Backbone:
């Protein structure tokens, strides 16, 4: 469900006619619906209200400060993976005791900042990392909370680049080593091993892989001696959304599946959804520059490229393409491509699409997650503007970059 709806043939975000928004803010333009964003957060919160989990929105999915602030104001915590994300999280007003920090490669500086910032806990991915956090905690004279990220070795049934819970992946700690670390916990006097964490992948549309992983981790927790003092179970993110014809579990179906085992565990539950909250809350609007026909194909060349939305190029991901104004004249097969000098620069391939003309605008749907946050300046293209719609109003939440932004940090020698 989302708030991008067609009225009289025109695409709206909530009460805002997108053609009008484009004439004010230009293209390429990321447009977010505030109502969809908070709606998805509240849906998940509601589905799990029996256990009142801490829902830490995963900042990497879309890290715009206005998005973070909106969710934080609804009561969300934040899941971060870098010093930069910690900076954003604190700037958005998130209470530090609602911040959890994953990543296989936290640097000393990043650890120090998070220790000084008094976040809830680190999700720890290796023993060397534990040693570093332990050392830094000592330096600050603190006992720092950590959760062990368990690699449960389950198949998440998603794209191989976004599968993270197989034992061949770089993430987490296997069960045997986790058991050993917990047995040796007295060695880490400045660390309080208070939780277990898992995150098995992203865009997972079925409940089974989650259940298998949660069962494994909960079973592992039961096997620990009573004085291990584990209080938190962080089940990660990964809930899939509809891009095309997926039929993902709803928040309610997901909760029905996993609530019994979560309740039985007795732990405080933490979740880290990203895409589920913001994926369908955003679109990317782009304008057709040219329509080009070659002996074999038709290319719709638009002003957004793989630097704005890399998911199709990187994962072969599917995003629906919609005209801003409904069009007559039937459909025709075409590729939608950007201006970048790579054949991988496409937003859609071999699609039956309306007969877009030069100057028309189109919407690339479901671009709210891993859209802007994975964008770049490749080909020296200034990054797109972002707006947030609330009811009948659209506000700029990131101004379009200009050429000066491109060279801001460069030094001519
Ligand atoms: N927690 C951890 C530790 C994660 O690594 C991730 C995502 C999440 C939570 C949030 O996952 P979500 O609920 O959004 O699935 N760029 C890829 C997705 C990469 C996900 C990386 N980790 C894409 O565009 O599909």
Residues:
């Amino acid at each position: 469900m989302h708030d991008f709806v067609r009225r009289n043939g025109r695409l709206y975000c909530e009460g805002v006619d997108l053609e009008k928004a484009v004439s004010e803010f230009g293209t390429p333009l990321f447009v977010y619906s505030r109502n969809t964003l908070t709606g998805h957060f509240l849906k998940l919160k509601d589905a799990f209200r029996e256990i009142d989990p801490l829902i830490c929105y995963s900042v990497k999915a879309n890290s715009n400060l206005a998005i973070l602030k909106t969710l934080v104001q609804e009561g969300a915590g934040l899941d971060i993976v870098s010093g930069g994300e910690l900076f954003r999280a604190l700037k958005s007003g998130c209470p530090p005791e609602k911040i959890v920090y994953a990543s296989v490669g936290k640097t000393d500086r990043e650890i120090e900042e998070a220790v000084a910032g008094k976040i809830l806990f680190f999700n720890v991915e290796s023993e060397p990392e534990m040693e570093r956090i332990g050392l830094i905690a000592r330096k600050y004279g603190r006992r720092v909370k950590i959760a062990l990220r368990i690699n449960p070795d389950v198949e998440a049934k998603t794209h191989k680049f976004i599968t993270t819970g197989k034992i061949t992946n770089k993430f987490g700690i296997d069960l045997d080593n986790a058991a050993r670390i917990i047995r040796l916990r007295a060695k880490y006097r400045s660390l309080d091993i208070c939780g277990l964490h898992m995150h098995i992948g992203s865009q997972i549309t079925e409940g089974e892989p989650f259940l298998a992983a949660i069962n494994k981790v909960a079973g592992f927790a039961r096997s620990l001696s009573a004085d291990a003092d584990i209080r938190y179970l962080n089940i990660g993110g990964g809930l899939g959304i509809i891009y095309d014809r997926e039929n993902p579990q709803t928040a309610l179906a997901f909760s029905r599946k996993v609530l019994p085992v979560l309740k039985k565990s007795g732990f405080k539950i933490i979740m880290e959804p990203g895409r589920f909250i913001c994926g369908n809350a955003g679109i990317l609007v782009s304008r057709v520059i040219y329509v080009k026909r070659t002996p074999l194909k038709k290319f719709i060349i638009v002003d957004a490229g793989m630097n704005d939305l890399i998911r199709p190029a990187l994962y072969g991901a599917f995003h629906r393409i919609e005209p801003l104004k409904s069009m007559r004249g039937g459909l025709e097969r075409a590729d939608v491509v950007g201006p970048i000098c790579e054949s991988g620069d496409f937003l859609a391939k071999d699609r039956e699409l309306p007969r877009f003309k030069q100057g028309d605008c189109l919407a690339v749907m479901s671009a709210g997650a891993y859209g802007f946050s994975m964008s770049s300046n490749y080909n020296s293209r200034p990054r797109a503007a972002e707006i947030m719609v609330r009811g009948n109003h659209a506000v700029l939440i990131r101004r379009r970059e200009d050429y000066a932004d491109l060279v801001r940090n460069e030094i001519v020698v």
User: Anything to note?
Assistant: The longest strand covers residues 282-293. The domain at 63-273 is CATH 3.20.20.10 (TIM Barrel). The radius of gyration is 23 Å.
